[in-house]
Design a protein that fits this description.
The protein has two domains: 15-52, no CATH class; 62-190, GTP Cyclohydrolase I, domain 2 (2-Layer Sandwich), CATH 3.30.1130. Helix content is 37%, strand content 25%. It has seven helices and seven strands, in the order ααββββαβαβαβαα. The protein has helices spanning 15-28, 41-52, 108-119, 125-140, 154-157, 176-179, 181-190, and strands at 62-64, 73-84, 90-100, 104-106, 122-123, 144-153, 168-175. A hairpin with a 5-residue loop joins β2 (73-84) and β3 (90-100). α1 (15-28) packs across α2 and α3 runs antiparallel to α4 (125-140). It is elongated and about 65 Å long. It starts with 14 loop residues before the first helix and ends in a 7-residue tail after the last helix. 27% of the residues are buried.
Length: 197
Amino acid sequence: MSASNPIRQRGPIDLPKVEQAAADLLSGLGYDLSDESLASTPKRVARMYEEILTATPFESTTFPNDGEYDELVVVRDIPFHSLCEHHLLPFTGVAHVGYIPGPRIVGLSKLARVVDLYSRELQVQERMTAQVANWVEETLQPRGVGVVLEAEHLCMTVRGVRAPGSRTTTSAVRGMLRHDPRTRAEFFALVGASTGV
């Protein structure tokens, strides 16, 4: 994580306050919390939000690109889940992250970890896509970066328009992947997306 690409700052999670808010919500929705099935629900809800919104820190260890590799490195189908900041409903999907190395490379697991890092906050898919791309660009200073996120948003599939099965695709490209049409087309073909070509 870089200074120009931060996680949204917030205070610590106050579990008793979240538990009380969940109890108030259930009561406001007309449910009786003395019902044995619901009695512990506020506590479970508080722990669930704590888990979903807590990222695991990691070291972004990089290595010299000794082999002078100068072709695309792509990790596909990285699963993620996040919470829509507008309705607090989940969106889930997969991320495809690629880069053309410059002087340094990164352990491939770190690309999955950075997706997880930015997914564990109240999010919108567009911002998360840009955050992942910015992290790769700022951490590695590669010749190009490409990120594609594909997700299903419950705020669109179970409410409002109610369009189950619809998926949203967002992309962010930097460097050669933005400016070189052939490299851009190769990246989108590798991740199985037709956007951006």
